[in-house]
Amino acid sequence: MTSSATPSRKALSKIASNRLQKEVVEWQVNPPAGFKHKVTDNIQRWIIDVVGAAGTLYANETYQLQVDFAEHYPMEAPQVIFIPPAPLHPHIYSNGHICLDILYDSWSPAMTVSSICVSILSMLSSSTTKQRPIDNDRYIKNCKNGKSPKETRWWFHDDKI
Amino acid sequence: MDSEDDMHDAHDVESLDDDFYSGDTPMGSEDGDAEYDFVDNESEDSEDVTSHRQQQSYTILSVSDIRQRQEEDIHRVSTVLSISRVAACVLLRHYKWSVSRVHDEWFADEENVRKVVGLLEKPVEMPNARELPCGICFESYSSNEMTAAACGHPFCSACWRGYVGTAISDGPGCLMLRCPDPSCGVAVGEDMIRMLASDEDKQKYSRYLLRSYIEDNRKTKWCPAPGCEFAVEFVMGSSSYDVTCNCSYSFCWNCTEEAHRPVDCATVAKWILKNCAESENMNWILANSKPCPKCKRPIEKNQGCMHITCTPPCKFEFCWLCLGAWSEHGERTGGFYACNRYEAAKQEGAYDESERRREMAKNSLERYTHYYERWATNQSSRQKALADLHSMQNEKLEKLSDRQSQPESQLKFIIEAWLQIVECRRVLKWTYAYGYYLLENEYAKRQFFEYLQGEAEAGLERLHQCAEKELQVYLEAEAPTKDFNYFRTKLAGLTSVTRNYFENLVRALETGLRDVGPSGNQANANKNTSPKSLLGGKGGKSGKAKVIGTSSRSGDEAWTMATIGLASTAPTRTRGRQTCARCANSTGRFGLCCLLLCD
Ligand SMILES: [Zn+2]
Ligand SMILES: [Zn+2]
Ligand SMILES: [Zn+2]
Ligand SMILES: [Zn+2]
Ligand SMILES: [Zn+2]
Ligand SMILES: [Zn+2]
C-alpha cells in the first residue's frame, strides 16, 4: 500500500457521502464485469480488484485500483491509481498513475466509480503492447514526494488506447 | 571625415557644450552634400515625426469599448444566423471571436458546427414523468424541481449549482461548459449561468467572457502594465510593434515586453534570460552608490544624467558609468574616447592555456557587466526622468510660468524635452542589449554602431543635463530672468538634435547596420535621416539668432562665444527658403550650425 502517495483529505461532505452510499448499493447489486470491491468501514477509499479480460494482453492478470474520494465528490473527480505493481501499459506509469482524461479534465459529476472502471478495463483491453509510457522515468522522478496524479497537467495525446 | 574631425577638436577644446552645434554630426560639408535635409514647409513639426512613426497601427480599447464590441459581434452573428444571443455567444467563443469564421463555418456545414459546439436545433423536453432521478446525486425529485439544458437531461438544482460553481471556480473553461451527462455535450450557455450561479460567480463568469474576447482573439492583447485595464487591438502587418497604451506604458505588441525598438524581440528575450541567470552577480551594479574616482568618498547618484559632481571640496566631475573625468567625455582627439564602448583587457605576452581561459572568462563577465550596467542605469535614469516629467507637468511648470512670467503654453518645449529624454533613455537602454550581442568580429558594424550610439548618448547627456540642472536656475529665480529665451533656444535645440541622433541610431539598427561601408559610415547614416527630423521645432520663431547673439552671459562662456562667432556671419533669410551663411546654401538643406543661426 502506498499510503504516502495519498494526500491528506478532508472528510466527505454530506452530499458526497450520500452519493457514495448510493454507489455502494448499486455496485453490490450490479458490479461492473471483471471488478471486485470489498466494502470496508472506510467509504472514502475503495480498493478494487481488476481482472484482465479474456482474449486480451492482460487476461487472467489481477491488479488493484485505489480510489480516493475528495470532500466535494462528485463535483471533484476521485483520485484513481493502480497499486504497484501496475499493469504494463503505454498509459500507465510504474507508480500506478493513469493517463486517462475522464480522471482529470474530462471528469463529469454524472460519472461513477463503476463508469470509471469500465473505461479503465476498456483502456487495458485495447492495448496492443505491454510497455510503459515513453516518458515513464522522467515522470516518476517528477512525482517523488508523493505527488498526486491530479497535480499533473496531463496531455491526452492518444485517443485510441 | 578629416575636416570634420578637425572641427570637433577645435570646439571640444573650448567646451563641452559646444558639441551641441559643432556636433559630430557633420555640418554642411564642402561638397555641398549637407547631411540633413530640411523641409521648407514649416508646418512640419515634431508631432508629425512621432505620429508618422506610429501611424495608428493599433487601437486602445477600454473595458466599455470591449463590452460594446463584444455585444455588437454577438448581435451580428445572432442576426445573420437567426439564432439566440446565447447561442451566438457560444459560437463566437468557440471560433475565437472571429465573426467571419463563424459565418464561414456555419454556412459551410451548419449540422457539423452544431455538433461540435453543442447547439441543438430543437430543444429536447425533459422525460415526461412525475418523478425523475437526478443524474448526479441519484435522488429523485418531482419534475418541476429539475432543470435541464437544451438536451433535456435532468439534474436537481442543487447539483446544477454545484456543477456550475465548480466550473466557474476552476477558471475560464466554464465558458465552454457542457451538460454533465458524459454522453451528451450540449452547451451550457450564459442563460443557464444567470439562472444558476451565485452573484459573485456571475461576475466572475462575465469577467472571463470579457477576457476571452481579448485573450482568445489573435488581434487583441491586454496592456501588460500592472493594474492597467486597457487592451490593444493591433493591425496585423504593421511595420512597428511598439504600442503606447492610454496608461502611458509602451510595450511591444509581439512579445509584450516593454517597448524595445529598435532591438528585435529575440534579442530582448535572450537578454532578459541572460539577466535572470546573472541577476545575483549583477545586484551590486544597481546599487546607487560608487566611490568618487578622485577622493574615494561614496557618491550617491540621485539624478538622471550621468554627469556627476562630487561634493565640495573635491568637486571632481566625472561620468557615472565609466568613472572617467567628465572633461574627457566626447573628446575625439587621440582616438575614440567613448563611454559606450567596451574594450577587452589587453592581453600582452604569452599566456598558458589555463591562464588564457581564466582571462577569457573574466573578460566575458566584464564584457557583460559593461553592457548590463549601461542597460540598467539607463533604465533607472528613464524612471527618474519619467518622475521628473510628471512633476514638471503637475507642479513645476506652473511655478516656472509664474517665476518667469511666461504663459504655460510657451513652456511646452520643456515637456517636449522631457518626453524626448524618456524616450531616448528607453532606446539607449535597448541598444546596450543590442551591442552585447553584436559579434566581436563584425568590426566595421561594431565601429559604426558604437559611433552612432556614442553620438546619441553624448547628445542625450547634454539634453538631460540641460533639462535637469540648468532649468533649476530659472525655477529658483526670484524674478523673470533675462536670458530665459536663451535657455529656451538651447533646450529646444538640444531636444531636436538629440531626437535626430536617436532617429539615426534607430534607423541604422533597424536596417541591421546595412549601411556600413569601409568609409563614410557617418555620411551614410545621415542620408537616412528623416527630412523632417532635424529642426522638428515649431516653425516661425524668428529671431532666435538675434536673441542669442545679443545675450551675453557670464556662465557658459564657450557656448555664447561660439554663438556670437557664428552669428557674426549673419544669415540672410529668404522667403520660403532658408539660407544659412555657415552652411552656405539656400537649397533648404541644413547643417547643425544652422540651428541657432537660422530659423
Ligand atoms: Zn442532484
Ligand atoms: Zn445533456
Ligand atoms: Zn496600459
Ligand atoms: Zn518584442
Ligand atoms: Zn570626490
Ligand atoms: Zn562615461
UniProtKB/TrEMBL annotation, chain A:
Enzyme class: transferase
PROSITE patterns membership: UBC_1, UBC_2
Residue ranges of domain UBC core in the record: 15-161
GO MF term set: ATP binding; ubiquitin conjugating enzyme activity
Keyword ATP-binding recorded: yes
Active-site residue numbers: C99
Assigned keywords, A-Z: ATP-binding, Nucleotide-binding, Transferase, Ubl conjugation pathway
EC number: 2.3.2.23
The keyword Nucleotide-binding is assigned to this record: yes
The organism's place on the tree of life at top rank: Eukaryota
Entry similarity comment: Belongs to the ubiquitin-conjugating enzyme family.
Function: Accepts the ubiquitin from the E1 complex and catalyzes its covalent attachment to other proteins.
Name used for this protein in its record: E2 ubiquitin-conjugating enzyme
TrEMBL record, chain B:
Pfam families: Ariadne, IBR, IBR_1, UBA_ARI1, zf-C3HC4
Biochemical pathway: Protein modification; protein ubiquitination
Top class in the EC scheme: transferase
Single Gene Ontology MF annotation: zinc ion binding
Alphabetical GO biological process terms: protein ubiquitination
Catalytic activity: [E2 ubiquitin-conjugating enzyme]-S-ubiquitinyl-L-cysteine + [acceptor protein]-L-lysine = [E2 ubiquitin-conjugating enzyme]-L-cysteine + [acceptor protein]-N(6)-ubiquitinyl-L-lysine
Polar residues bias locations: 519-531
Biased composition range(s): Acidic residues: 30-48
RING-type domain: residues covered: 130-343, 134-178
Function (record text): Might act as an E3 ubiquitin-protein ligase, or as part of E3 complex, which accepts ubiquitin from specific E2 ubiquitin-conjugating enzymes and then transfers it to substrates.
The protein's name: RBR-type E3 ubiquitin transferase
